[in-house]
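Handoff note, outgoing to incoming analyst
You'll be picking up this chain. Sequence as last confirmed:
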Amino acid sequence: MRRGAPTHDPDALHDFLRELTRFMLTFSGEGAEGVDRVVRGIARTYGGRAETVLVADGAVLSVTAGGRTLTSTVTVFPDVARLDRAVALKEFVERVRDTRPPLDEAAAGLRQVENLPGGVPRWARGVGIVLFSVGFAPAVQPTWYEIGTTALLATLVATATVLADRRPRLARVLPLLAAVLVSLVTLGLLQPGHSHGGPVLIMLPALFFFVPGDLLSAAAAELVGGFLSTGAVRLVYAFVLLLQLYVGVLIGVAVTGTPTSALFDTAQDADLSRWVMVGSWAVFTLGLILAFSVPWRAAGWVTGLVYLALGVQAAGTALIGEVAGTFVAAMVLAAVADLLSRPAGRPPRLVLFLGGFFTLTAGSLGLRALTSLAGGHVLHGFRDLMDFVTIVTTIAVGLLAGVALVPRRGHQA
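Most recent structure output, in case you need it:
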């Protein structure tokens, strides 16, 4: 307990911390360690003590203040689609920690953050999804054909995503619906030949918005870090999302009568210049900002960390190989994002980290592995599957090592 911190009404403190826990679990994407740290710190600010038992979609909260202990449970569905709320939440927690307003004012401030109007209009979010996919496309195949087909397919995905925004039940199966749509158009209309690369490589950039590479690596990091329940739940949920994409592609294969043997992933020869490749990541970052409602004041930080991750990964791969280079990139990204997020007024770690993490593209290997296996390319599929497991584990351990390298943070958000 902080010296001089007066003990506030236990019921009011408990109610406020319960709402804060619910909000953080829903919108902040900080993971178990971040939620626990913030809730404990705010409890100390108000002269109390809090204990949490966390899973990815719920928590048991116990608050002790004024000689009384109150316990409650919180159940939510995590959603990090709007990172402007994560930024506003960090700023709110910093104000509460520094000024210690009355609990009723703090609760009202939290409700304002939760009801924050959208940072970008719905059509702009759709544009962001298209730019996000088009910017990523050269990383899959560095060709103009890949960019052109991605623009078409991602427009369809963006339209479906925007229409599903106000239909939560539909949004739960949106990856499946998007994969069916992309598969039908790719195999039934575009019908790419061997000279354009495999059909899975044509589909992948448009579906990248749904590929749960971040969830998979976050789950692995939490398991390695000792948050077993949270990590296991994230791992299962990420796998379900990946299976939705896989099944959606197979439905398109069945409807169009395409033989599964066509699901190869041989890449076309590159015809993009190096400068187009470098510039594509700026397009990707702009798309991420729009698609995830990142505040514009954080754009410079996000862009810098995207190129930092790319640069470190490229240099590391050239010097010590892909696995070790990816490990170093994840470690540097985690350490830098953690340090940069600590000062007041800076974006939270999730916002700084997410763009750079997406460049490591672990989840896409999982989709490629599943579709290769379904197409009868057993050796190729198992090779992709082993690469997937290796890269996900490498990223997770790299993230853990990066956070361990920097001094432990205090009780700030």
